[in-house]
Design brief:
Blueprint lengths: L2 H20 L4 H14 L7 E5 L5 H7 L4 E6 L2 H13 L5 E4 L12 E7 L8 H11 E12 L7 E6 L5 E7 L8 E5 L6 H4 L5 E5 L4 H10 L2 E7 L5 H6 L12 E8 L1
Parallel strand pairs: 1-2, 1-4, 2-3, 4-5
Antiparallel strand pairs: 5-11, 6-7, 8-9, 10-11
Helix pairs in contact: 1-4
């Protein structure tokens, strides 16, 4: 599967994804994943950053509010339309650009840092993307990205629950299956069941890599890994947001920060 095919899937997802994520139904993102990512992020005040796979711009805006001068890049025009409309009504100085991570259309050493919120595992040719990130980073610049945890969310995963419906274990399989472009179909689980049943599921191409492959690609691109994060919901968050309680059993997300030598 090539980048154009990936773009077509995400363009088809973009309208529904934006409407429901902005309505608060992406609880994993809002209650756990994005707050943990921002907490791990070094100071970006005054720095120039690129948000790779920015979607409709919510996370890009969160980084901009920390004082960074941000550009957002995405392959789906509908995501960018929503992002630009929000920027026009509430300006944060963000520029949004249509593009593909394999051939980022900026000169060498254009950015102090790059973020990628839950986008890298959906990109074809991840090594090529990482090579492009290194090209556009300034010396000592960094990349911080989040992905589905390759060890605990491989192509096959099932939550095991007790008689009360509480998560108690995770069953996983196919960890070493690195076939490209497997299509996963789902919608946000927090959407009410009667409304969810009327929606066309998202169609998401996935490019699963083992942890060994991710580390090899990062190092091979010329980056030095300096931090890992595995967000776990606190007891308080899990009580308030039961949908994220399974992250207390095993992590769902992996955050990685790596720096250009």
């Amino acid at each position: 599967m090539n980048a154009d095919e990936v773009a077509a899937h995400w363009e088809n997802n973009a309208e529904t994804w934006t409407i429901y994520s902005r309505a608060g139904y992406d609880r994993y993102r809002d209650a756990l994943n994005t707050p943990a990512f921002l907490n791990m992020l070094p100071s970006v005040t005054g720095l120039k950053g690129l948000d790779l796979g920015c979607g409709e711009g919510s996370n890009t805006r969160a980084v901009a509010r920390l004082g960074a001068r941000m550009t957002g890049l995405d392959i789906a025009p509908t995501f960018l339309r929503y992002a630009r409309e929000t920027e026009a009504s509430d300006p944060l100085g963000i520029e949004y650009v249509l593009g593909d991570g394999q051939s980022i259309d900026f000169p060498e050493a254009s950015f102090d840092f790059v973020t990628a919120f839950m986008s890298m595992m959906d990109m074809a040719n991840q090594q090529g993307v990482l090579n492009e990130v290194v090209r556009i980073l300034r010396p000592n610049g960094f990349l911080q990205f989040s992905i589905l945890h390759p060890c605990f969310v491989p192509p096959t995963r099932k939550n095991i629950r007790d008689e009360k419906g509480e998560p108690i274990a995770v069953q996983i399989a196919d960890y070493f299956d690195e076939r490209d472009g497997r299509i996963e179909r789902w919608v946000f689980s927090s959407i009410p069941a009667e409304e969810r049943s009327a929606l066309t599921p998202f169609s998401i191409p996935r490019f699963h890599r083992t942890l060994t492959s991710w580390v090899s690609m990062i190092v091979g691109a010329g980056l030095v890994i300096e931090a890992f994060g595995e967000p776990m919901a606190s007891r308080e968050v899990a009580f308030a947001e039961p949908v994220v309680a399974d992250t207390r059993i095993a992590p769902i997300f992996l955050h990685i920060r790596a720096r250009k030598a």
